[in-house]
């Protein structure tokens, strides 16, 4: 019996060729029925097996009996092993991939160490697989002005892709108006911005700032001054700090101007920084509303360390004979006095005034109370003003009395003082003692106040002191012109009035302050 089939067995059922043929093996079966193999079975029947040939990888295996199957199996397996390395579907194992990744990372680390970067903190951070890509990142950071030292201060910046992270962030900042010339310092202070998403992280913060009434043109300056703000949560510290300041009396319409001039407020914690500062100033005798007004005018005072600067400076003021009752006035007049290196300045100015006008410690305390800015005056202006008063004919004792009575004499414009003194001598024809009694005469405008009021008084033929003429508002002066007698109680030296800080505001916003908050006389 002849069987025409690819399987050359009818009974019993077993395969003569090896079953594990490799993939993509071209196998051609060739049937030949010229001879048959007889295999005995249990029922003594005969079974005919057809001879066939199998071509595998261009090698011919011929089988004519069952026994040849075993010998050919080894040859087929050998052929499969020889072809495995050239298979189109072959790929490295997980172990091989892991070893290759470790080798590539070692090369990147070696490159970084070679240029001075310590890669110890980069373990676990996904880095470029080639040194070429890492070199591109380092070169880009160098173009931005960052040094190797800057990168070592925050090596995680090397995990940022140039195209996916750095360029999109920098483009966004540039479109906002942040100057390229500030990028270097910007990234030194807050390199984490390069990890940020423009849509998810940066844009919401910018919109929040605009919602705080910060003008769009001021946004770039705010970011340049305080880049760390881009990392804050909107509903965290930023919102609570503003809410607290508004709660103590800071006008809502002033918030934008305050934050523009001192955006660091948005990063201050209320419980740890702002509230203790406000409460301490209150304990000195400054009303809470007055504190809010001081913050409106000079928001940077919130940055003075309470324990490191403010409290020690208050102690120094007391040590140099400033009376405790005068502390509120001193701080309100010159808030910076609680944030500077004060003790050395106090000691230096006390010695200077003692050498120039023989001023004693107690009188020095009175001078600081009336004009706390005196601690920031340099030696040359003080000496020039003292010499001018001496040249006017005042004795050293009189000069000292005038400085104690009105320390502003040491800081006024000398040319204006000369014109005022000439008018005093020529037109008013008063004795020098009148100036010793009321040295604040020099602080009033010659054309706006002194001349017109003197003419009015002279026309009426009234005899009155300089204080009675000058130390009042225009409205009050008009009332005085109606007096038949002069009220001696109104003849007082001008002094700082704390109530000026707590008076109701006008409708005009005061958010557009000049940048001359720190102008030292």
Provide the descriptors you would attach to this structure in a database record.
single chain, 521 residues, mainly alpha, three-stranded antiparallel sheet, 3 strands, 51% helix, elongated, disordered C terminus
Explain this structure.
It is a single chain. With 521 residues, the protein is mostly helical. It has a domain of 67 residues. 51% of the residues lie in helices and 5% in strands. It has 23 helices and three strands. Strands 1-2-3 form a three-stranded antiparallel β-sheet, covered by helices on one side. Helix 15 packs parallel to helix 17 and helix 19 packs parallel to helix 21.
Task: Please state the oligomeric state of the protein chains shown.
Answer: single chain
Distance between the termini: 126 Å
Strand order of the largest sheet: 1-2-3
Reported for the largest beta sheet, the result is: 3 strands, antiparallel
Query: What Rg do the Cα atoms give?
Result: 46 Å
Fraction of residues in helices? 40-55%
Mean pLDDT: 82
Subcellular location: Plastid, Chloroplast
Keywords: Chloroplast, Plastid, Transcription, Transcription regulation, Transcription termination, Transit peptide
Protein name: Transcription termination factor MTERF4, chloroplastic
Family: Belongs to the mTERF family.
